[in-house]
Amino acid sequence: MKLPLPLVAALLALGLGACNSNAPADKTPAAAAGAPAAAPVPDTKKRILFFGNSLTAGLGVDPEEAFPALIGQKIDSAKLGYETINAGLSGETTAGGRSRVGWVLRQPVAVFVLELGGNDGLRGLPLSATRENLQGIIDTVRRRSPGAQIVLAGMQIPPNLGQSYAADFKQLYQDIAAKNQVALIPFLLVGVGGDPQLNQKDGIHPTPAGHRIVARTVWHTLQPLLR
């Protein structure tokens, strides 16, 4: 019997489709019925996320010389089992950090080190906005990683914009830390800020030697939180 050409073409297409299929020809009843997929493996990796501006990013030094990498070396030497992530971004303000923190926290973290606000202070931005943005970042961390320990790195600025502004800027970190009951590094650049020998030519960003001092300052607050 001679088949019509359209029917022949349809049968050929079905045959080619079956040959190209990756599915096994002999399915078990459970597979054919759509057995439930295996439950996803929970993410148990312990991460320390450093979230900040150019100080965290290590502007002007090699990545391994920036204080987050130095902290990572201390953790590896002590075999504490944490992975360190440097999420520093040069030029970042608290507003910028607040807008990107949700994207950065796509994976859960065990410890979140928040180092932002310095660029706000140097630009003379309203302290009410800085305070609101830092609070917003902390709220996002607690929503995305409820069990995370938070470390707030305090900053200070020179009195170029007035003694009152500089004093209020310093105080806001203490206020936020107390309100949220988070660990506070009173001044990230203690022993480094203002020292020409420990800063690059811009007088703001630490040299490798300066980063080593910053790492010790951070480690003093961070180490007791690591379990």
TrEMBL record:
It comes from the Bacteria. Residues 1-25 form the signal peptide. InterPro entries: Ester_Hydrolysis_Enzymes (IPR051532), SGNH_hydro (IPR013830), SGNH_hydro_sf (IPR036514). GO terms for molecular function: phosphatidylcholine lysophospholipase activity. Residues 50-213 form the SGNH hydrolase-type esterase domain. Keywords: Signal. This is Arylesterase. The lineage of its organism: Bacteria, Pseudomonadati, Bacteroidota, Cytophagia, Cytophagales.
